[in-house]
Design a protein that fits this description.
The structure holds 3 protein chains of 3 kinds. Chain A is an all-alpha fold. Chain A folds into 2 domains: 59 residues, no CATH class; 237 residues, MetI-like fold. By secondary structure, chain B is α/β, with parallel strands linked by helices. Chain B folds into 2 domains: 187 residues, D-Maltodextrin-Binding Protein, domain 2 (3-Layer(aba) Sandwich), CATH 3.40.190; 200 residues, Periplasmic binding protein-like II (D-Maltodextrin-Binding Protein, domain 2), CATH 3.40.190. In chain B, the strands form 3 sheets. In chain B, strands 2-1-3-10-4 form a 5-stranded mixed beta sheet. In chain B, strands 6-7-5-8 form a 4-stranded mixed beta sheet. In chain B, 60% of the residues are buried. Chain C is an all-alpha fold. In chain C, helix 7 packs antiparallel against helix 10. Chain C is globular, with a radius of gyration of 23 Å. Classes of the chains: A mainly alpha, B alpha/beta, C mainly alpha. At the A-C interface, helix 3, helix 5, helix 6, helix 7 and helix 9 of A face helix 1, helix 4, helix 5, helix 6 and helix 7 of C. Chain B: This is Sugar ABC transporter substrate-binding protein. Chain B: Pfam families: SBP_bac_1. Chain B: It comes from Streptomyces spinosisporus.
Chain lengths: 329, 438, 289
């Protein structure tokens, strides 16, 4: 295994060769070698923790890795695309369930990212001007982000309980909005429970980033707009939002990727068997691999997911980067 | 896009060679060794009210073992939420404990991985022989016809716990012995404004335990004799429907219980809001929630008719914990000695008393300590009318698939949707299709 | 709170704006506060109350849960573990990300795009699939070299620091790009090496951005559940997993969960508040290049 980590520098082969020369000729070669040297720790870590496991995962997806073989999975038989064909056979239950889970996840992700962004941005814009208590509010808004995931989600579980939860207490007992208490942790409402919990925990991050982005917008722009007679809304539309574009490009993309792959929230909220309406793909894959002990199929599903996200990200970057320098993305 | 493709190609070629080395991973070493005879690592499951309490119970015993044998046992109490994952990763990597607790229903599944030391006659001899253990407990230690993958450590059985006060109020003189009686009693209890029976509708394992017993009572099994899933068998459908109907049709289980997965039904019972509870060895739990022992009675779980027994008169699964030795142990002798120690009559008495479970060891079970009325019911059930969950390699998938199906049926019932033979059958069919193909 | 640096709209906002702001922020505060209130009030109730019908005002208060949390679960130990892991992962992640981001921001070299895109792509793989391969890898490294990565804090630190690396590098590239190049070129002329320029010029100029990235890295390590549940043992277990210890086979100690969550969150929130002024100023420069 030691060889694995050492092999990487080959890519930036000038690094190793350049090292002894550096002292003698500090000029050009140093300039060539240095960036690779600076990247080296990051590269090694990415290789060890992300890339090699990713490749092992891809290899696993071509194996029949059930409980009979996990102990020595070198001996597990190759199945070619067997795991993939099971996963994408949308007429059979496994494929159908995966497809369903995929659509649930897409819906959930779009709504969650949209809401997180909307709430975060609105709050940031409203809190741009100083007013009394702004600092306090800003601190308060960071609390959901600072709570450990488990603590935050279990509190929502507590509140979503059918008989004893706060949500039903308010909706049913106090406001009389519903004829009878609703179920939030099972059945169709579970989707909304998941969404609310996730947005509660996630919007402060969007708030933070947008709030920061807002401060970079030069005051002069607003002043000029005000002289032109632009109202509040027009200022937001003409100045604030366009200026936030680069921030939003990064923010929306990472929110999308994180939400799509989020495991902790649904897992704590629903346990190992999520209700159909809230069967997010990460829990679904977890169930396919860890609970039913079929790591091959689980891996195949993950690879399919990876391919999907690659395409989405690619398309997203192409569209959002139009007219922008994109050297760094 | 070009750069993404380039990156993907780069990443793959970069790491393919490395992966090849890593792929050779897993555990190639076969059986155990005796390389480190002085220490053992033991993963205990969380049996007490908290991990801290488990440590308090177990540590003195481990110290005793160290005094006797000079072997130091490193104890780790693994929470249930992590235990199976920890075992799976240990199995995959070969890096695990020497001795570990497993839920007895996992026995056959884990046996199939080959990660646990098989208990053949020779190994059993080292701990005093197979016949020291109660038969029903041995039935839950691995697939039939194979050497057990583990030995029984603690046994538990389901019983019907009932609130004496609520029963008296409702004018019920004795606990129900059949489901029909239970439903009739339920009506009386409801008239008094209490909820009759509790259930953990969203708890996959609890669901499995109950529908398994109902299936037995309908004379059916979830698996055919050669281990194939048979979930859509009409009798199974009836059995599952009967359980869900306790909520859907008979209304003895309140709809709110459909979402219970965190022992809320035990709390409801302990707080006197609910008259009956089907639970395994609940005494310690009820006590910790402030319900004193004279407040409730304990009776066998109802059957369809007659009295509990074998076959269709089954009224509980064999619940419990088994003790297994990890095949990759580097202290095989020590591990065996430890198993012998933990299953000795003396230790069995101490541990099972602490956890309010029943010793699966005959010598300990007959001890006076386990003759209280509540234990008598559990002991009787274990000895005469409890059956082991299917001992098949796919047990874990079965629990997930069928347990989830029942959870969804409860959710339907709670939402007021009709639960019909067809809807039950459809869910079970889906569950069956999710089982691994053979 | 330093409000001085916030740009202020020159026109006095119309009253419709003020009203909508009042309404929106009130609603949002409610949304944020209600769960927090539930946590606080539940943590002060006896167990029997928490399992009963919800009520806004507790019938009686007890600080019992705050005493019990320490004995039900070795909370102090888990807290220390989490702190060690999260702080180490944060420090390492920031250092590694600073180097990498500096290279990308200041140099042109072959493979630059490949590097940034590869780093980005790691965010797309579901974490659940990393779990087993990574565990295998750690075990094999352990067997081959004797470095115990699984079950140790070291392995966890390594894992978490890499988890936060991609986003950190990404953000820092932006921050560094916004530091004028003339500054470090002047330093180079003055005889600083490239690293000298990095540490004397670029890093100080980007401190806010670095703080922002550090906060993000800390939170990543602080809350992670899945990997911690498999990669830790009794002595190295972190809070995120350890909190689940209040929910046992027999009982769920809701009140203690809430109390423990609050106790462990207070230092984090306090730290957040202290860093807030840097954070707010910091995230700016990075995102808007």
């Amino acid at each position: 295994m030691t060889t694995t980590t050492l092999k990487e520098p080959v890519r930036g082969s000038s690094t190793g060769a350049a090292a002894p020369e550096q002292r003698r000729r500090p000029g050009r070669i140093r300039r060539i070698g240095l960036p690779y040297l600076l990247l080296l720790p990051a590269l090694l870590l990415e290789l060890l923790v992300h890339l090699v496991p990713m490749v092992i995962g891809i290899v696993m997806s071509f194996k029949e890795l059930t409980q009979f073989y996990i102990r020595d999975w070198g001996t597990a038989p190759w199945t070619g695309f067997g795991n993939y064909s099971v996963s994408v056979d949308f007429d059979a239950p496994v494929g159908k369930a995966l497809l369903h889970s995929f659509f649930v996840t897409v819906g959930f992700t779009l709504l969650s990212v949209g809401l997180c962004w909307l709430i975060g941005t609105t709050a940031a814009i409203y809190m741009q001007d100083t007013f009394r208590g702004r600092g306090l509010l800003r601190a308060l808004f960071l609390v959901p982000y600072a709570l450990p995931v488990y603590a935050a989600v279990i509190t929502w579980v507590f509140m979503f309980q059918h008989d004893n939860g706060l949500v039903n207490h308010v909706l049913h007992d106090q406001l009389h909005l519903t004829d009878k208490r609703s179920f939030w942790l099972i059945g169709d409402n579970s989707f909304w429970a998941l969404l609310i919990t996730h947005v509660w925990k996630g919007w402060p991050f969007a708030f933070l980033i947008v709030m920061a982005g807002l401060q970079n917008i030069p005051k002069e722009l607003y002043e000029a707009a005000a002289l032109d007679g632009a109202g509040m809304l027009q200022q937001i539309r003409r100045i604030t939002l366009p200026s936030l574009r680069p921030v939003n490009q990064v923010l929306v993309l990472v929110l999308f990727l994180w939400t799509f792959n989020d495991f902790n929230t649904p897992y704590v909220l629903f346990g190992k068997a999520a209700p159909e309406a809230a069967d997010l793909i990460s829990v679904h894959i977890y169930q396919a691999s860890f609970v039913t002990w079929n790591f091959g199929t689980g891996s195949a599903m993950s690879v399919l997911l990876l391919l999907f996200l690659l395409v989405v990200t690619g398309v997203y970057l192409v569209f959002t980067s139009r007219g922008r320098r994109t050297g760094d993305v | 896009m070009r750069s993404i493709r380039a990156a993907a190609v780069g990443a793959v070629t970069m790491s393919l060679a490395l992966a090849a080395t890593a792929c050779g991973g897993g555990s190639s070493s076969g059986g155990g060794s005796n390389d480190s005879p002085k220490t053992l690592t033991y993963w205990a499951s969380n049996q007490g009210a908290s991990i801290a309490i488990d440590k308090k119970v177990l540590q003195p015993e481990l110290d005793k073992f160290e005094k006797q044998t000079g072997i130091k046992v490193k104890l780790e109490v693994v929470p249930w939420s992590d235990l199976l994952n920890r075992i799976l990763t240990a199995t995959t990597s070969g890096q695990g404990p020497d001795v570990l607790n497993i839920g007895n229903t996992w026995s056959a599944s884990l046996q199939a991985t080959g990660a646990l030391l098989p208990w053949d006659a020779k190994n059993f001899d080292k701990i005093g022989g197979k016949d020291r253990f109660v038969d029903s407990a041995l039935g839950s230690t691995g697939a039939e016809g194979k050497d057990p993958a583990a030995v029984p450590l603690y046994s538990m059985a389901y019983a019907l716990y009932y609130n004496k006060e609520i029963f008296a109020d409702a004018g019920i003189s004795k606990p129900p012995a059949t489901w029909a009686e239970l439903i009739a009693d339920g009506k009386k209890i409801k008239a008094k404004g209490k909820s009759p029976l509790g259930a953990e509708g969203a708890n996959v394992s609890e669901n499995i335990h109950h529908v398994f017993v109902f299936a037995k009572q309908h004379g059916a099994d979830f698996f055919t004799a050669d281990g194939k899933p048979d979930f859509t068998n009409p009798k199974i459908v009836d059995a599952v429907k009967q359980y869900v109907d306790l909520m859907a049709k008979d209304k003895v289980i309140p709809t709110g219980d459909a979402e219970y997965a965190q022992n809320q039904s035990v709390s409801d019972f302990a707080k006197g809001r609910q008259a009956m509870l089907l639970w395994q060895s609940a005494a310690a739990n009820l006590k910790s929630q402030g319900m004193s022992e004279d407040k409730y009675g304990i009776a066998p779980v109802p059957v369809q008719s007659g009295t509990p027994g074998t076959g269709a008169q089954t009224n509980s699964m064999v619940a419990g914990i088994n003790l297994a030795v990890f095949k990759n142990t580097d202290n095989l002798d020590g591990a065996t000695k430890f198993v012998k120690f933990m299953t000795s009559d003396a230790e069995q008495k101490i541990l099972n008393t602490a956890y309010s479970s029943i010793p699966p060891v005959k010598g300990a079970q007959s001890d006076a300590a386990f003759n209280s009325p509540s234990n008598a019911v559990l002991k009787q059930t274990l000895a005469t009318s409890a059956a082991a969950l299917p001992q098949v390699a796919d047990e874990s998938q079965f629990e997930t698939a069928v347990g989830t199906a029942v959870k969804e049926l409860f959710a339907d019932a709670a939402a007021g949707r009709a639960v019909t033979t067809d809807s039950v059958k459809a869910k079970l069919e889906k569950a069956q299709q999710q089982m691994p193909m053979k | 709170m330093s409000d001085a640096r916030v740009s202020k709209s020159p026109m006095a906002p119309p009253s419709s704006f003020l009203w909508s702001r009042r309404i929106f922020l009130t609603l949002l505060t409610g949304f944020v506060l209600i769960p927090v209130y539930v946590m606080v009030s539940s943590s002060l109730k006896p167990l029997a109350d928490v399992t009963g019908k919800f009520r806004w005002l507790p019938s009686g208060l007890t600080i019992r849960p705050y005493i019990d949390i320490w004995s039900t679960v070795p909370l102090a130990k888990y807290f220390m573990n989490s702190l060690i892991v999260a702080v180490s992962a944060t420090v390492c992640s920031v250092v590694v990300a600073v180097f990498a981001a500096y290279a990308v921001s200041r140099y042109n070299f072959r493979g630059k795009r490949v590097f940034t895109v590869t780093v980005l792509s790691t965010q797309m793989f579901p974490g659940i699939l990393f779990l087993l391969p990574l565990f295998l890898l750690y075990v094999n490294i352990g067997n081959a070299t004797g470095i115990a990565l699984f079950g140790s804090r070291g392995g966890l630190i390594l894992t978490y620091l890499t988890f936060s690396l991609p986003f950190s590098i990404w953000m820092l590239i932006g921050y560094f790009d916004s530091v004028p190049r003339d500054l470090d070129e002047a330093a180079l002329v003055d005889g600083c090496g490239p690293l000298g320029a990095l540490f004397r010029i670029v890093v100080p100029a980007a401190i806010p951005g670095i703080v922002a990235v550090a906060v993000y890295a800390f939170m990543t390590a602080w809350g992670e559940v899945l990997f911690a549940s498999v990669m830790t043992n009794d002595t190295t277990r972190t809070l995120a997993v350890g909190l689940q210890g209040y929910s046992t086979l027999n009982d769920v100690y809701w009140n203690q969960i809430m109390a423990a969550s609050l106790v462990v969150s207070v230092p984090v929130v306090a730290g957040f508040l202290l860093l807030q002024r840097y954070l707010v100023a910091g995230l700016t420069a990075g995102a808007v290049k």
